[in-house]
Structure to design on (627 residues):
Protein backbone atom coordinates (compact mmCIF):
# COMPACT_ATOMS: atom_id res chain seq x y z
CA UNK A 1 0.00 0.00 0.00
CA UNK A 2 1.29 3.44 -0.85
CA UNK A 3 0.60 6.05 1.77
CA UNK A 4 0.93 9.72 1.17
CA UNK A 5 0.22 12.57 3.53
CA UNK A 6 -2.23 15.08 2.17
CA UNK A 7 -1.12 18.66 2.67
CA UNK A 8 -3.53 20.97 4.33
CA UNK A 9 -5.07 23.59 2.06
CA UNK A 10 -3.94 26.18 4.59
CA UNK A 11 -0.49 27.61 4.65
CA UNK A 12 0.32 26.14 8.04
CA UNK A 13 0.67 22.45 7.47
CA UNK A 14 -0.26 20.22 10.34
CA UNK A 15 -0.06 16.54 9.75
CA UNK A 16 1.02 13.26 11.20
CA UNK A 17 4.65 12.44 11.10
CA UNK A 18 4.14 8.68 10.92
CA UNK A 19 3.59 8.14 7.26
CA UNK A 20 4.92 4.75 6.47
CA UNK A 21 3.54 1.33 7.08
CA UNK A 22 5.87 -1.17 8.62
CA UNK A 23 7.85 -3.52 6.44
CA UNK A 24 6.06 -6.42 8.04
CA UNK A 25 2.81 -5.29 6.58
CA UNK A 26 4.29 -4.42 3.24
CA UNK A 27 5.99 -7.73 2.73
CA UNK A 28 3.64 -10.00 4.59
CA UNK A 29 -0.05 -10.51 4.50
CA UNK A 30 -1.13 -8.17 1.80
CA UNK A 31 1.06 -8.20 -1.22
CA UNK A 32 1.30 -5.34 -3.62
CA UNK A 33 1.43 -2.67 -0.98
CA UNK A 34 3.77 0.26 -1.23
CA UNK A 35 4.22 3.39 0.75
CA UNK A 36 5.71 6.70 -0.17
CA UNK A 37 5.90 10.18 1.20
CA UNK A 38 5.21 13.33 -0.75
CA UNK A 39 5.32 15.89 2.00
CA UNK A 40 8.60 17.61 2.76
CA UNK A 41 9.49 16.41 6.24
CA UNK A 42 10.27 19.92 7.37
CA UNK A 43 6.69 20.93 6.88
CA UNK A 44 5.39 18.45 9.44
CA UNK A 45 4.49 19.65 12.88
CA UNK A 46 3.94 17.44 15.89
CA UNK A 47 0.26 17.67 16.62
CA UNK A 48 -1.39 18.42 19.89
CA UNK A 49 -2.91 15.53 21.79
CA UNK A 50 -6.61 16.18 22.24
CA UNK A 51 -7.57 13.52 24.76
CA UNK A 52 -5.41 12.35 27.64
CA UNK A 53 -6.45 8.77 28.20
CA UNK A 54 -4.25 8.49 31.27
CA UNK A 55 -6.86 10.48 33.13
CA UNK A 56 -8.73 7.22 33.38
CA UNK A 57 -12.45 6.91 33.82
CA UNK A 58 -13.12 10.65 33.90
CA UNK A 59 -12.53 11.45 30.24
CA UNK A 60 -15.20 12.93 28.02
CA UNK A 61 -15.51 11.10 24.69
CA UNK A 62 -14.56 13.30 21.75
CA UNK A 63 -17.51 13.98 19.40
CA UNK A 64 -16.49 13.33 15.82
CA UNK A 65 -18.44 13.55 12.56
CA UNK A 66 -17.45 11.00 9.92
CA UNK A 67 -18.95 12.30 6.70
CA UNK A 68 -19.62 10.08 3.72
CA UNK A 69 -16.47 9.82 1.67
CA UNK A 70 -16.93 10.82 -1.94
CA UNK A 71 -16.95 8.09 -4.56
CA UNK A 72 -18.95 4.94 -5.08
CA UNK A 73 -17.26 3.03 -2.26
CA UNK A 74 -17.05 6.08 -0.01
CA UNK A 75 -20.15 5.56 2.15
CA UNK A 76 -19.17 1.93 2.85
CA UNK A 77 -15.76 3.03 4.07
CA UNK A 78 -17.28 5.78 6.19
CA UNK A 79 -19.64 3.20 7.68
CA UNK A 80 -16.77 0.94 8.74
CA UNK A 81 -14.92 3.89 10.27
CA UNK A 82 -18.03 5.08 12.11
CA UNK A 83 -18.65 1.57 13.46
CA UNK A 84 -15.06 1.41 14.66
CA UNK A 85 -15.33 4.70 16.49
CA UNK A 86 -18.68 3.69 18.02
CA UNK A 87 -16.83 0.88 19.82
CA UNK A 88 -13.80 2.98 20.71
CA UNK A 89 -15.34 4.60 23.82
CA UNK A 90 -12.88 7.48 23.58
CA UNK A 91 -14.41 8.82 20.37
CA UNK A 92 -18.11 9.38 19.91
CA UNK A 93 -19.28 9.40 16.30
CA UNK A 94 -22.16 11.78 15.73
CA UNK A 95 -25.39 10.70 14.09
CA UNK A 96 -25.19 11.48 10.34
CA UNK A 97 -28.75 12.79 10.37
CA UNK A 98 -27.61 15.63 12.62
CA UNK A 99 -24.91 16.78 10.20
CA UNK A 100 -25.39 20.46 9.25
CA UNK A 101 -24.03 20.15 5.73
CA UNK A 102 -23.38 17.66 2.99
CA UNK A 103 -19.70 17.74 2.18
CA UNK A 104 -19.42 18.23 -1.56
CA UNK A 105 -15.69 18.81 -1.72
CA UNK A 106 -13.69 16.77 0.83
CA UNK A 107 -10.61 18.90 0.17
CA UNK A 108 -12.08 22.16 1.43
CA UNK A 109 -12.58 22.98 5.10
CA UNK A 110 -16.01 22.18 6.50
CA UNK A 111 -18.04 25.13 7.79
CA UNK A 112 -16.68 25.22 11.32
CA UNK A 113 -19.49 27.37 12.73
CA UNK A 114 -22.12 24.94 11.45
CA UNK A 115 -20.34 21.87 12.88
CA UNK A 116 -19.85 23.63 16.19
CA UNK A 117 -23.65 23.86 16.43
CA UNK A 118 -23.87 20.07 16.77
CA UNK A 119 -20.84 20.04 19.09
CA UNK A 120 -18.62 18.21 16.66
CA UNK A 121 -15.02 18.58 17.73
CA UNK A 122 -13.68 16.91 14.59
CA UNK A 123 -14.95 16.33 11.09
CA UNK A 124 -13.58 13.60 8.81
CA UNK A 125 -13.84 14.02 5.05
CA UNK A 126 -12.46 11.85 2.29
CA UNK A 127 -12.85 10.23 -1.06
CA UNK A 128 -12.39 6.81 -2.61
CA UNK A 129 -11.45 6.51 -6.23
CA UNK A 130 -9.10 4.82 -8.65
CA UNK A 131 -5.46 5.59 -9.10
CA UNK A 132 -4.04 5.77 -12.63
CA UNK A 133 -2.91 2.15 -12.35
CA UNK A 134 -6.43 1.00 -11.45
CA UNK A 135 -5.77 0.46 -7.79
CA UNK A 136 -8.02 1.85 -5.09
CA UNK A 137 -7.05 5.31 -3.93
CA UNK A 138 -8.38 6.55 -0.61
CA UNK A 139 -7.84 9.94 0.92
CA UNK A 140 -8.98 11.32 4.23
CA UNK A 141 -8.68 14.62 6.01
CA UNK A 142 -9.28 15.25 9.70
CA UNK A 143 -10.48 18.76 10.55
CA UNK A 144 -10.36 20.40 13.95
CA UNK A 145 -13.63 22.29 14.24
CA UNK A 146 -12.28 24.68 16.86
CA UNK A 147 -9.63 26.05 14.52
CA UNK A 148 -11.12 25.05 11.18
CA UNK A 149 -7.75 23.55 10.29
CA UNK A 150 -6.79 20.20 8.89
CA UNK A 151 -4.83 18.31 11.53
CA UNK A 152 -4.26 15.07 9.68
CA UNK A 153 -4.56 13.78 6.16
CA UNK A 154 -3.28 10.83 4.21
CA UNK A 155 -3.67 8.98 0.97
CA UNK A 156 -3.60 5.21 0.57
CA UNK A 157 -3.22 3.39 -2.72
CA UNK A 158 -3.87 -0.31 -2.65
CA UNK A 159 -5.62 -3.32 -4.13
CA UNK A 160 -9.43 -2.94 -3.94
CA UNK A 161 -9.58 -6.19 -1.93
CA UNK A 162 -8.01 -4.26 0.93
CA UNK A 163 -10.95 -1.84 1.20
CA UNK A 164 -11.89 -2.88 4.74
CA UNK A 165 -8.28 -2.71 5.83
CA UNK A 166 -7.97 0.80 4.45
CA UNK A 167 -11.01 1.80 6.52
CA UNK A 168 -9.32 0.34 9.61
CA UNK A 169 -6.01 2.04 8.81
CA UNK A 170 -7.79 5.37 8.39
CA UNK A 171 -9.57 4.72 11.71
CA UNK A 172 -6.25 4.02 13.41
CA UNK A 173 -4.67 7.18 11.97
CA UNK A 174 -7.53 9.32 13.27
CA UNK A 175 -7.68 7.54 16.64
CA UNK A 176 -3.93 8.00 17.10
CA UNK A 177 -4.03 11.65 16.05
CA UNK A 178 -6.76 12.52 18.55
CA UNK A 179 -5.79 10.36 21.53
CA UNK A 180 -2.03 10.21 21.14
CA UNK A 181 -2.36 6.45 21.68
CA UNK A 182 -1.80 3.72 19.13
CA UNK A 183 -4.87 2.51 17.30
CA UNK A 184 -6.16 -1.05 17.28
CA UNK A 185 -8.58 -1.27 14.38
CA UNK A 186 -6.23 -2.83 11.83
CA UNK A 187 -5.91 -6.06 13.78
CA UNK A 188 -7.33 -9.56 13.85
CA UNK A 189 -8.57 -11.97 16.45
CA UNK A 190 -8.27 -15.75 16.57
CA UNK A 191 -11.09 -17.45 18.43
CA UNK A 192 -13.01 -20.69 18.77
CA UNK A 193 -16.20 -20.99 16.75
CA UNK A 194 -18.65 -23.22 18.60
CA UNK A 195 -21.71 -25.01 17.28
CA UNK A 196 -23.90 -27.98 18.13
CA UNK A 197 -25.32 -29.20 21.44
CA UNK A 198 -23.28 -28.50 24.54
CA UNK A 199 -22.68 -32.19 25.29
CA UNK A 200 -21.01 -32.64 21.90
CA UNK A 201 -20.01 -29.16 20.98
CA UNK A 202 -18.06 -28.81 17.79
CA UNK A 203 -15.19 -26.35 18.00
CA UNK A 204 -13.35 -24.77 15.12
CA UNK A 205 -10.32 -22.56 15.08
CA UNK A 206 -11.28 -19.30 13.38
CA UNK A 207 -9.88 -15.86 12.64
CA UNK A 208 -11.68 -12.57 12.08
CA UNK A 209 -11.04 -8.86 11.89
CA UNK A 210 -11.42 -7.11 15.25
CA UNK A 211 -14.90 -5.93 14.20
CA UNK A 212 -16.10 -9.45 13.42
CA UNK A 213 -15.73 -9.21 9.63
CA UNK A 214 -13.80 -11.53 7.31
CA UNK A 215 -14.21 -14.72 9.33
CA UNK A 216 -12.07 -17.59 8.10
CA UNK A 217 -12.15 -21.09 9.59
CA UNK A 218 -8.80 -22.73 10.19
CA UNK A 219 -9.95 -26.19 11.29
CA UNK A 220 -12.76 -28.49 10.38
CA UNK A 221 -14.55 -29.07 13.66
CA UNK A 222 -13.92 -32.84 13.91
CA UNK A 223 -11.18 -32.23 16.40
CA UNK A 224 -11.62 -30.50 19.74
CA UNK A 225 -9.53 -27.32 19.75
CA UNK A 226 -9.29 -24.61 22.43
CA UNK A 227 -7.29 -21.57 23.61
CA UNK A 228 -5.69 -20.28 20.38
CA UNK A 229 -2.99 -17.62 20.86
CA UNK A 230 -1.47 -15.34 18.24
CA UNK A 231 2.23 -15.10 17.64
CA UNK A 232 3.34 -11.47 17.98
CA UNK A 233 5.83 -11.86 15.14
CA UNK A 234 4.61 -14.43 12.63
CA UNK A 235 1.48 -15.94 11.08
CA UNK A 236 1.48 -18.71 13.67
CA UNK A 237 -1.21 -19.62 16.14
CA UNK A 238 -0.55 -21.83 19.16
CA UNK A 239 -3.50 -23.78 20.56
CA UNK A 240 -4.47 -26.98 22.33
CA UNK A 241 -5.93 -29.83 20.32
CA UNK A 242 -7.22 -33.27 21.17
CA UNK A 243 -5.47 -35.53 18.72
CA UNK A 244 -4.22 -39.05 19.14
CA UNK A 245 -2.93 -39.76 22.62
CA UNK A 246 -2.56 -36.90 25.02
CA UNK A 247 -4.08 -33.52 24.16
CA UNK A 248 -1.24 -31.25 23.15
CA UNK A 249 -0.18 -27.78 22.22
CA UNK A 250 0.19 -27.33 18.48
CA UNK A 251 1.37 -24.48 16.31
CA UNK A 252 -0.48 -23.80 13.09
CA UNK A 253 0.80 -21.50 10.38
CA UNK A 254 -2.37 -19.83 9.15
CA UNK A 255 -0.82 -19.01 5.78
CA UNK A 256 0.47 -22.45 4.85
CA UNK A 257 -1.79 -24.64 6.98
CA UNK A 258 1.24 -26.53 8.28
CA UNK A 259 1.02 -27.56 11.87
CA UNK A 260 3.29 -29.24 14.36
CA UNK A 261 3.30 -30.45 17.92
CA UNK A 262 5.13 -28.16 20.32
CA UNK A 263 7.71 -30.27 22.07
CA UNK A 264 7.74 -33.91 23.02
CA UNK A 265 6.33 -33.79 26.51
CA UNK A 266 5.32 -36.85 28.55
CA UNK A 267 1.73 -35.78 29.15
CA UNK A 268 -0.97 -33.28 28.31
CA UNK A 269 0.31 -29.82 27.37
CA UNK A 270 -2.11 -26.90 27.46
CA UNK A 271 -2.57 -23.17 27.94
CA UNK A 272 0.08 -21.99 25.44
CA UNK A 273 1.22 -18.44 24.87
CA UNK A 274 4.04 -16.92 22.84
CA UNK A 275 6.84 -14.86 24.32
CA UNK A 276 6.81 -11.19 23.24
CA UNK A 277 9.59 -11.84 20.69
CA UNK A 278 7.71 -14.82 19.29
CA UNK A 279 10.71 -17.12 19.85
CA UNK A 280 9.29 -19.19 22.69
CA UNK A 281 6.05 -20.84 23.67
CA UNK A 282 5.20 -21.06 27.35
CA UNK A 283 2.64 -23.64 28.47
CA UNK A 284 1.55 -26.05 31.17
CA UNK A 285 2.44 -29.72 31.31
CA UNK A 286 0.18 -32.04 33.29
CA UNK A 287 1.94 -34.94 35.00
CA UNK A 288 0.20 -37.01 37.64
CA UNK A 289 -1.93 -34.60 39.60
CA UNK A 290 0.23 -31.53 39.10
CA UNK A 291 0.63 -29.07 36.27
CA UNK A 292 3.81 -27.05 35.87
CA UNK A 293 5.09 -24.36 33.53
CA UNK A 294 7.54 -25.00 30.71
CA UNK A 295 8.91 -23.02 27.81
CA UNK A 296 10.07 -24.33 24.50
CA UNK A 297 12.45 -22.37 22.30
CA UNK A 298 11.00 -22.62 18.80
CA UNK A 299 14.40 -22.56 17.10
CA UNK A 300 16.51 -24.84 19.27
CA UNK A 301 13.51 -26.92 20.45
CA UNK A 302 15.06 -26.79 23.91
CA UNK A 303 12.54 -27.04 26.73
CA UNK A 304 12.92 -25.43 30.12
CA UNK A 305 11.00 -26.21 33.29
CA UNK A 306 9.96 -23.03 35.11
CA UNK A 307 7.96 -24.35 38.05
CA UNK A 308 8.21 -27.59 39.99
CA UNK A 309 5.26 -27.91 42.31
CA UNK A 310 2.51 -30.36 43.21
CA UNK A 311 0.07 -27.57 42.37
CA UNK A 312 -1.81 -26.53 39.26
CA UNK A 313 0.31 -23.82 37.63
CA UNK A 314 -1.25 -22.60 34.40
CA UNK A 315 -2.30 -19.65 32.19
CA UNK A 316 1.20 -18.18 31.94
CA UNK A 317 1.72 -14.85 30.19
CA UNK A 318 4.94 -12.88 29.66
CA UNK A 319 5.39 -9.23 30.53
CA UNK A 320 5.86 -7.19 27.33
CA UNK A 321 9.61 -6.85 27.97
CA UNK A 322 9.88 -10.61 28.40
CA UNK A 323 11.50 -10.37 31.83
CA UNK A 324 8.60 -11.66 33.94
CA UNK A 325 5.78 -14.17 33.81
CA UNK A 326 2.35 -13.90 35.37
CA UNK A 327 0.42 -17.13 35.93
CA UNK A 328 -2.25 -18.69 38.08
CA UNK A 329 -1.58 -21.33 40.70
CA UNK A 330 -3.54 -23.11 43.40
CA UNK A 331 -0.33 -23.66 45.41
CA UNK A 332 -1.84 -21.61 48.23
CA UNK A 333 -5.11 -23.55 48.24
CA UNK A 334 -7.17 -21.71 45.65
CA UNK A 335 -6.45 -20.24 42.22
CA UNK A 336 -4.51 -16.99 42.63
CA UNK A 337 -2.24 -14.89 40.44
CA UNK A 338 1.54 -15.00 40.85
CA UNK A 339 4.44 -13.23 39.17
CA UNK A 340 7.83 -14.84 38.67
CA UNK A 341 10.95 -14.16 36.64
CA UNK A 342 11.17 -15.32 33.04
CA UNK A 343 13.49 -18.11 34.16
CA UNK A 344 11.27 -19.27 37.00
CA UNK A 345 12.36 -19.18 40.63
CA UNK A 346 10.41 -17.73 43.49
CA UNK A 347 6.95 -16.42 42.74
CA UNK A 348 5.09 -13.58 44.38
CA UNK A 349 1.33 -13.69 44.83
CA UNK A 350 -0.32 -10.47 43.66
CA UNK A 351 -4.07 -11.21 43.90
CA UNK A 352 -5.73 -10.62 47.24
CA UNK A 353 -9.46 -10.29 47.65
CA UNK A 354 -11.55 -12.01 50.29
CA UNK A 355 -13.18 -15.15 49.00
CA UNK A 356 -12.13 -14.54 45.41
CA UNK A 357 -10.33 -16.85 43.01
CA UNK A 358 -8.28 -15.41 40.21
CA UNK A 359 -7.34 -17.02 36.93
CA UNK A 360 -6.31 -16.51 33.28
CA UNK A 361 -3.97 -13.55 33.93
CA UNK A 362 -2.65 -11.82 30.83
CA UNK A 363 -0.16 -8.99 30.75
CA UNK A 364 -1.11 -5.84 28.86
CA UNK A 365 1.09 -5.05 25.85
CA UNK A 366 1.66 -1.64 27.47
CA UNK A 367 2.84 -3.36 30.63
CA UNK A 368 0.67 -1.28 32.93
CA UNK A 369 -2.06 -3.80 33.75
CA UNK A 370 -2.75 -7.50 34.11
CA UNK A 371 -6.23 -8.61 33.04
CA UNK A 372 -7.81 -11.64 34.69
CA UNK A 373 -10.94 -13.65 35.36
CA UNK A 374 -12.21 -13.36 38.94
CA UNK A 375 -14.63 -15.77 40.58
CA UNK A 376 -16.39 -14.31 43.57
CA UNK A 377 -19.76 -14.96 45.16
CA UNK A 378 -20.80 -17.30 42.37
CA UNK A 379 -20.10 -14.84 39.57
CA UNK A 380 -17.32 -14.65 37.04
CA UNK A 381 -15.93 -11.20 36.30
CA UNK A 382 -13.26 -9.70 34.09
CA UNK A 383 -10.92 -7.20 35.69
CA UNK A 384 -7.53 -5.55 35.59
CA UNK A 385 -4.91 -4.84 38.24
CA UNK A 386 -1.45 -3.33 38.21
CA UNK A 387 1.43 -5.81 38.06
CA UNK A 388 1.99 -5.35 41.81
CA UNK A 389 -1.63 -6.32 42.49
CA UNK A 390 -2.84 -2.84 43.35
CA UNK A 391 -5.53 -0.82 41.62
CA UNK A 392 -7.90 -3.70 40.92
CA UNK A 393 -10.84 -2.71 38.75
CA UNK A 394 -13.61 -5.08 37.71
CA UNK A 395 -14.81 -4.31 34.19
CA UNK A 396 -17.74 -6.70 34.02
CA UNK A 397 -19.35 -9.34 36.21
CA UNK A 398 -22.04 -11.93 35.66
CA UNK A 399 -22.89 -15.60 35.50
CA UNK A 400 -19.84 -16.38 33.48
CA UNK A 401 -17.27 -14.08 31.89
CA UNK A 402 -13.90 -15.59 31.10
CA UNK A 403 -10.59 -15.31 29.33
CA UNK A 404 -9.60 -11.68 28.65
CA UNK A 405 -7.24 -10.79 25.80
CA UNK A 406 -5.69 -7.38 25.18
CA UNK A 407 -6.06 -5.13 22.18
CA UNK A 408 -2.62 -4.39 20.72
CA UNK A 409 -2.74 -0.86 22.17
CA UNK A 410 -3.55 -2.09 25.68
CA UNK A 411 -6.72 0.02 25.97
CA UNK A 412 -9.34 -2.71 25.45
CA UNK A 413 -9.98 -6.30 26.36
CA UNK A 414 -12.00 -8.95 24.60
CA UNK A 415 -13.45 -11.87 26.53
CA UNK A 416 -16.28 -14.37 26.23
CA UNK A 417 -19.51 -14.54 28.15
CA UNK A 418 -21.51 -17.73 28.57
CA UNK A 419 -25.10 -17.52 29.75
CA UNK A 420 -24.95 -21.17 30.85
CA UNK A 421 -27.65 -23.75 30.22
CA UNK A 422 -27.94 -25.08 26.71
CA UNK A 423 -26.83 -21.79 25.14
CA UNK A 424 -23.31 -20.87 24.28
CA UNK A 425 -20.72 -18.16 24.69
CA UNK A 426 -20.40 -14.92 22.74
CA UNK A 427 -17.45 -12.57 22.45
CA UNK A 428 -17.45 -9.03 23.83
CA UNK A 429 -15.02 -6.15 24.01
CA UNK A 430 -14.75 -3.42 26.62
CA UNK A 431 -12.38 -0.58 27.32
CA UNK A 432 -9.95 -0.94 30.19
CA UNK A 433 -11.88 1.63 32.23
CA UNK A 434 -15.15 -0.27 31.90
CA UNK A 435 -16.91 2.66 30.29
CA UNK A 436 -18.27 0.78 27.31
CA UNK A 437 -18.94 -2.80 26.32
CA UNK A 438 -19.80 -4.08 22.86
CA UNK A 439 -20.60 -7.47 21.37
CA UNK A 440 -18.20 -8.70 18.71
CA UNK A 441 -20.52 -10.24 16.14
CA UNK A 442 -19.87 -13.89 15.28
CA UNK A 443 -22.11 -16.13 13.26
CA UNK A 444 -22.28 -18.88 15.83
CA UNK A 445 -21.13 -19.14 19.42
CA UNK A 446 -17.62 -17.86 20.03
CA UNK A 447 -15.08 -18.27 22.82
CA UNK A 448 -11.37 -18.00 23.67
CA UNK A 449 -10.64 -14.81 21.70
CA UNK A 450 -6.97 -13.87 21.32
CA UNK A 451 -6.14 -10.49 19.86
CA UNK A 452 -3.29 -10.34 17.38
CA UNK A 453 -0.82 -7.52 16.82
CA UNK A 454 -1.50 -4.41 14.75
CA UNK A 455 -1.03 -5.31 11.09
CA UNK A 456 0.26 -1.89 10.14
CA UNK B 1 -4.96 -17.33 0.29
CA UNK B 2 -5.63 -21.02 0.51
CA UNK B 3 -5.77 -23.00 3.69
CA UNK B 4 -4.51 -26.55 3.66
CA UNK B 5 -4.42 -29.14 6.37
CA UNK B 6 -1.37 -31.33 6.29
CA UNK B 7 -1.77 -35.05 5.82
CA UNK B 8 -0.53 -35.59 9.34
CA UNK B 9 -3.22 -33.30 10.68
CA UNK B 10 -5.89 -35.27 8.83
CA UNK B 11 -4.65 -38.48 10.35
CA UNK B 12 -4.87 -36.96 13.77
CA UNK B 13 -8.41 -35.79 13.09
CA UNK B 14 -9.41 -39.27 11.95
CA UNK B 15 -7.88 -40.89 15.01
CA UNK B 16 -9.66 -38.48 17.28
CA UNK B 17 -13.03 -39.16 15.66
CA UNK B 18 -12.66 -42.85 16.33
CA UNK B 19 -11.67 -42.18 19.91
CA UNK B 20 -14.67 -40.01 20.53
CA UNK B 21 -17.01 -42.50 18.95
CA UNK B 22 -15.75 -45.19 21.30
CA UNK B 23 -16.10 -42.91 24.27
CA UNK B 24 -19.64 -42.01 23.26
CA UNK B 25 -20.66 -45.66 22.99
CA UNK B 26 -19.32 -46.59 26.36
CA UNK B 27 -21.18 -43.75 28.00
CA UNK B 28 -24.56 -45.03 26.98
CA UNK B 29 -25.12 -48.72 27.50
CA UNK B 30 -28.24 -48.75 25.34
CA UNK B 31 -26.28 -47.68 22.31
CA UNK B 32 -23.58 -50.26 22.73
CA UNK B 33 -23.66 -52.80 19.96
CA UNK B 34 -21.61 -55.32 21.88
CA UNK B 35 -23.64 -58.23 23.25
CA UNK B 36 -26.94 -59.90 22.49
CA UNK B 37 -29.21 -58.43 19.84
CA UNK B 38 -32.33 -56.71 20.99
CA UNK B 39 -30.68 -55.17 24.00
CA UNK B 40 -32.57 -51.96 24.47
CA UNK B 41 -33.90 -49.50 26.95
CA UNK B 42 -36.16 -50.93 29.61
CA UNK B 43 -34.39 -54.25 29.89
CA UNK B 44 -33.01 -55.15 33.29
CA UNK B 45 -29.40 -54.96 34.22
CA UNK B 46 -29.08 -58.74 34.11
CA UNK B 47 -29.46 -58.67 30.33
CA UNK B 48 -25.88 -57.56 29.83
CA UNK B 49 -23.42 -60.27 28.85
CA UNK B 50 -20.95 -60.78 31.69
CA UNK B 51 -17.64 -59.22 30.79
CA UNK B 52 -19.16 -56.92 28.18
CA UNK B 53 -19.01 -53.18 28.18
CA UNK B 54 -22.70 -53.06 29.10
CA UNK B 55 -22.01 -55.32 32.00
CA UNK B 56 -19.37 -52.91 33.23
CA UNK B 57 -21.47 -49.79 32.77
CA UNK B 58 -24.75 -51.21 34.07
CA UNK B 59 -23.69 -53.60 36.79
CA UNK B 60 -20.50 -51.98 38.02
CA UNK B 61 -20.84 -48.31 37.17
CA UNK B 62 -18.36 -46.56 34.92
CA UNK B 63 -18.21 -43.20 36.67
CA UNK B 64 -17.57 -41.51 39.97
CA UNK B 65 -18.47 -37.99 41.01
CA UNK B 66 -16.64 -35.24 42.84
CA UNK B 67 -17.49 -32.29 45.02
CA UNK B 68 -16.98 -28.81 43.62
CA UNK B 69 -13.31 -28.06 42.87
CA UNK B 70 -12.36 -31.26 44.70
CA UNK B 71 -10.34 -34.27 43.63
CA UNK B 72 -11.05 -36.25 46.80
CA UNK B 73 -12.62 -39.66 46.35
CA UNK B 74 -15.87 -39.83 48.31
CA UNK B 75 -16.85 -43.08 50.03
CA UNK B 76 -19.37 -43.66 47.24
CA UNK B 77 -16.64 -43.10 44.66
CA UNK B 78 -14.32 -45.51 46.47
CA UNK B 79 -17.02 -48.15 46.58
CA UNK B 80 -17.58 -47.79 42.83
CA UNK B 81 -13.85 -47.97 42.14
CA UNK B 82 -13.59 -51.10 44.33
CA UNK B 83 -16.25 -52.74 42.15
CA UNK B 84 -14.50 -51.53 39.01
CA UNK B 85 -11.19 -52.95 40.17
CA UNK B 86 -12.71 -56.37 40.89
CA UNK B 87 -14.40 -56.44 37.50
CA UNK B 88 -11.31 -55.22 35.65
CA UNK B 89 -9.20 -57.90 37.31
CA UNK B 90 -11.67 -60.53 36.20
CA UNK B 91 -11.77 -59.24 32.63
CA UNK B 92 -8.15 -58.49 31.88
CA UNK B 93 -8.57 -58.04 28.12
CA UNK B 94 -9.50 -54.37 28.35
CA UNK B 95 -7.19 -51.42 28.35
CA UNK B 96 -8.58 -48.61 30.42
CA UNK B 97 -8.78 -44.89 29.86
CA UNK B 98 -9.87 -42.83 32.83
CA UNK B 99 -11.45 -39.58 31.63
CA UNK B 100 -11.45 -36.64 34.00
CA UNK B 101 -14.09 -33.96 33.68
CA UNK B 102 -14.98 -30.68 35.38
CA UNK B 103 -18.18 -28.68 35.59
CA UNK B 104 -18.56 -25.37 33.77
CA UNK B 105 -18.05 -23.27 36.90
CA UNK B 106 -14.34 -22.89 36.40
CA UNK B 107 -11.99 -21.40 33.85
CA UNK B 108 -10.96 -23.50 30.89
CA UNK B 109 -7.25 -23.99 31.55
CA UNK B 110 -7.67 -24.74 35.26
CA UNK B 111 -10.41 -27.22 34.45
CA UNK B 112 -8.09 -29.20 32.19
CA UNK B 113 -5.69 -29.53 35.10
CA UNK B 114 -8.53 -30.29 37.52
CA UNK B 115 -9.90 -33.00 35.23
CA UNK B 116 -6.41 -34.46 34.96
CA UNK B 117 -6.19 -34.58 38.75
CA UNK B 118 -9.54 -36.32 39.03
CA UNK B 119 -8.56 -38.89 36.43
CA UNK B 120 -5.26 -39.41 38.23
CA UNK B 121 -7.04 -39.90 41.56
CA UNK B 122 -9.23 -42.63 40.07
CA UNK B 123 -6.31 -44.21 38.23
CA UNK B 124 -4.16 -44.29 41.36
CA UNK B 125 -6.98 -45.91 43.30
CA UNK B 126 -7.47 -48.58 40.65
CA UNK B 127 -3.72 -49.18 40.54
CA UNK B 128 -3.65 -49.56 44.32
CA UNK B 129 -6.40 -52.16 43.95
CA UNK B 130 -4.17 -54.22 41.70
CA UNK B 131 -4.86 -53.00 38.17
CA UNK B 132 -1.51 -52.87 36.37
CA UNK B 133 -0.44 -49.35 35.45
CA UNK B 134 0.28 -50.61 31.93
CA UNK B 135 -3.46 -51.02 31.38
CA UNK B 136 -4.32 -47.55 32.65
CA UNK B 137 -4.10 -44.19 30.96
CA UNK B 138 -5.76 -40.90 31.77
CA UNK B 139 -7.13 -38.06 29.71
CA UNK B 140 -8.71 -34.81 30.81
CA UNK B 141 -11.53 -33.11 28.96
CA UNK B 142 -11.82 -30.22 31.41
CA UNK B 143 -15.27 -28.68 31.01
CA UNK B 144 -15.47 -29.54 27.31
CA UNK B 145 -17.76 -32.58 27.51
CA UNK B 146 -20.60 -32.11 30.00
CA UNK B 147 -23.24 -34.85 30.21
CA UNK B 148 -25.86 -32.71 31.90
CA UNK B 149 -26.74 -29.22 30.74
CA UNK B 150 -28.44 -26.68 32.98
CA UNK B 151 -27.56 -23.72 35.19
CA UNK B 152 -27.57 -25.34 38.60
CA UNK B 153 -25.91 -27.83 40.82
CA UNK B 154 -28.07 -30.75 39.65
CA UNK B 155 -26.15 -30.63 36.40
CA UNK B 156 -22.78 -29.48 37.66
CA UNK B 157 -22.60 -32.41 40.10
CA UNK B 158 -23.09 -34.89 37.25
CA UNK B 159 -20.39 -33.23 35.18
CA UNK B 160 -17.71 -33.32 37.88
CA UNK B 161 -16.75 -36.88 37.15
CA UNK B 162 -14.17 -39.45 36.25
CA UNK B 163 -15.31 -42.05 33.76
CA UNK B 164 -13.60 -45.39 33.34
CA UNK B 165 -13.73 -46.17 29.63
CA UNK B 166 -12.93 -49.65 28.38
CA UNK B 167 -10.77 -49.74 25.31
CA UNK B 168 -9.73 -52.52 23.01
CA UNK B 169 -6.18 -53.70 22.85
CA UNK B 170 -3.74 -51.80 25.01
CA UNK B 171 -2.49 -48.74 23.20
Amino acid sequence: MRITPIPSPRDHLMSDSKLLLSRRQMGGLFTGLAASSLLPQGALAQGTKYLDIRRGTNFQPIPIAVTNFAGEQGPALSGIITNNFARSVFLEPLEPRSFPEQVSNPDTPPRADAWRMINAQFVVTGRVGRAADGRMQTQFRLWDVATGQQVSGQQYVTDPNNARRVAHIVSDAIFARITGEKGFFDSRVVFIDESGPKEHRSKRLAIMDQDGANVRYLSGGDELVVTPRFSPSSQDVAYMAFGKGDPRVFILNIETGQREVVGNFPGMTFSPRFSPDGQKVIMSLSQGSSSNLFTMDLRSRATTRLTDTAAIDTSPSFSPDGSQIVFESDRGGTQQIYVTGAGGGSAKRISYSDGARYSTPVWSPKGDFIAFTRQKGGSFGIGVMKPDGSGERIITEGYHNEGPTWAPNGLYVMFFRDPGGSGGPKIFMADVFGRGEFPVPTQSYGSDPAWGPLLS
Amino acid sequence: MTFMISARALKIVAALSIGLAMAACSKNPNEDANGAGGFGSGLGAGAATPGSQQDFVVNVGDRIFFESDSTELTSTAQATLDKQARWLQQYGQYSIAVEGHADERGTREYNFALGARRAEAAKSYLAARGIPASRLRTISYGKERPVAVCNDISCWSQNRRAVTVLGGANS
Remarks:
- The longest strand of chain B covers residues 136-142.
- Confidence is low (pLDDT under 50) at residues 1-43 of chain B.
- Chain B touches chain A through 42 residues (CB under 8 Å).
